[in-house]
Write a structure and sequence with these properties.
Blueprint (H helix, E strand, L loop, with lengths): L27 H19 L11 E6 L4 H18 L2 E6 L5 H10 L6 E5 L1 H9 L7 H9 L6 H6 L1 E2 L2 E2 L2 E13 H7 L7 H11 L16 H13 L16 H17 L7 H9 L5 E5 L2 H5 L11 H5 L3 H4 L1 E4 L12 E10 L5 H11 L4 H5 L7 E2 L5 H6 L1 E2 L5 E2 L6 H9 L4 E2 L8 H10 L1 H11 L4 H18 L3
Parallel strand pairs: 1-2, 1-3, 9-13
Antiparallel strand pairs: 3-9, 4-5, 6-7, 6-8, 6-9, 6-10, 11-12
Helix pairs in contact: 1-3, 4-19, 5-15, 8-10, 10-20, 10-21, 20-21
Length: 480
């Protein structure tokens, strides 16, 4: 493996043109060309930051919410901010899978933006590692808004060395979805532990219905996310506190064994991926699946290009949503507490920012502009601030049809979703290994090893050792 110089961003590379869906399929030439064009546009937009006043009346903001409809909403929020403050905001959309290259170019040219929004946790840590962040202003913003109004776990994931690296704005969650009707008929408990999950998969794997549809495709980052969700539940970590790769721990070996058994014995055969797992569950051919919260509006038939196709869904488009239960955090036998894979995205202020003006902007986006911000996609923007619960419930979700999630899902499901950021865990982020996290998502050593267990070419122990060796190789190749 050669030098790793840029991230590959996991979940969003499969989003059907939004946050949540399928994978980007671009030729390498087109991808490189778009990076060059975007970098040039972003750099020219930033202006000369060499002597920025803290109260500059013009700031540049990059956003990874770069889709056309999302940009339109952000421009509406910004227009109101500009009217209230007199601060002009130059908004630049940046594609997430191109961010690392663009920000590297901007930093080298001394043209960093003042603020960057919708940054995943790994990207925040990469900026920290490259000394590109203002690590004082985020804490000041949070204190002014009220630290007790934020999810403690979201703040923790954005903290390093006692300092906030960014202001957590919202999050999406990996979920275990299960057919409530089938569980009730079989007398099964919700699949919130390894034991309950396996028991349900075994009992419901009959009559033309798989116990679970589970991602196993070795070249799909969705497989990595699904496995990490299960592994975190058992206390399996990518690295230990000093940063040593720990994938061969007993907790990880058990996670490899458990996931592979589910895939081999109770899932749909073949290399299931992000698209096929959703399609199988939507067709009524599986009793459970692991998917992100971006499936919620699709499951409620609010999106024409991803509609449920089960027999009951033909007469009632919301049938599957009404008969699906949701488990957020899972617990394994070796785990100290239930855990869940999830992504927190944040606002960051860069080291060269006009700090006062940047702080005013971020504070506005997290307060007066917050409802419109999370309203862009409520199924994937769980608020990290308290006090917005009722607002979030009523925000219309969907693409082709708009409807509040509260009109589809019961109150206990929505309550669990809103609280899920408090149980989010992530490999490598608390240990300051964000750059390694991004690099592993580019090369996907864990899904490759996992696939070997499912195919029978590797034992769980051998897969764990192979994954550890491959991640260590990636770690050595990262340009520090």
């Amino acid at each position: 493996m050669g030098k790793v110089t840029a991230f590959s961003w996991p979940h969003f590379v499969r989003r059907l043109g939004r946050r949540g869906g399928c994978r980007l399929r671009r030729q390498r030439f087109l991808a490189l060309l778009s990076v060059v064009v975007l970098a040039a546009a972003a750099l020219s937009a930033c202006g000369d930051d060499s002597e920025r006043a803290p109260d500059a009346k013009q700031i540049t903001v990059w956003t990874e919410e770069n889709l056309e409809d999302r940009m339109a909403v952000q421009k509406q929020i910004i227009a109101d901010f500009q009217r209230r403050t007199g601060i002009t905001v130059n908004l630049v959309g940046v594609a997430e899978d191109q961010f690392s290259q663009v920000v590297t170019s901007a930093a080298a040219a001394g043209k960093l933006p003042d603020v960057i929004g919708a940054l995943p946790l790994a990207a925040v840590r990469e900026l920290e590692a490259n000394d590109l962040l203002d690590t004082e202003t985020p804490g000041q913003i949070v204190d002014k808004l009220g630290r007790d109004t934020f999810s403690p776990r979201a703040l923790e994931l954005d903290t390093a060395g006692g300092k906030l690296l960014g202001v957590p704005s919202d999050g999406w969650a990996q979920l275990i979805l299960y057919r409530k009707d089938l569980f009730e008929k079989a007398g099964l408990q919700p699949p919130d532990t390894y034991e309950a999950l396996e028991a349900a998969a075994a009992k419901l794997n009959t009559g033309g219905i798989a116990g679970i549809t589970l991602a196993i495709a070795p070249k799909d980052s969705f497989t990595a996310q699904s496995f990490e969700h299960v592994a975190l539940a058992n206390g399996c970590q990518l690295v230990d506190d000093p940063g040593n790769v720990a994938l061969n721990s007993p907790q990880c070996v058990r996670a490899f064994e458990f996931y592979a058994k589910l895939a081999k014995d109770y899932s749909v055969k073949g290399k299931q991926d992000v698209d096929s797992t959703r399609a199988t569950y939507f067709s009524g051919k599986a009793a459970m699946t692991i998917w992100s919260s971006f499936i919620l509006d699709e499951m409620a038939s609010l999106r024409k290009d991803a509609l449920p196709t089960c027999q009951e869904c033909r007469a009632d488009p919301e049938w599957l949503a009404e008969n699906t239960g949701v488990v957020t955090a899972l617990k394994g036998p070796d785990g100290s507490a239930p855990a869940q894979y999830g992504e927190i995205v944040s606002w960051v202020v860069t080291r060269d920012a006009a700090k006062n003006s940047a702080a005013r902007f971020v504070q506005y986006m997290m307060d007066e502009g917050y409802e419109k911000w999370i309203g862009m996609a409520p199924e994937g923007k769980f608020p990290t601030r308290k006090g917005f619960e009722d607002t979030w419930n009523k925000l219309p979700a969907g693409v082709d049809t708009k409807k509040p999630l509260a009109e589809v899902y019961p109150a206990d499901v929505l309550d669990a979703l809103r609280k899920s950021p408090d149980t989010f865990a992530r490999w490598g982020i608390p240990q300051g290994q964000g750059k390694l996290v991004g690099a592993t998502m580019g090369e996907l050593p864990v899904p490759k090893a996992l696939s070997g267990v499912v195919e029978g070419s590797l034992t769980p122990q051998a897969a764990a050792e192979q994954a550890k060796t491959d991640v260590e190789t990636i770690k050595r190749g990262i340009r520090q």
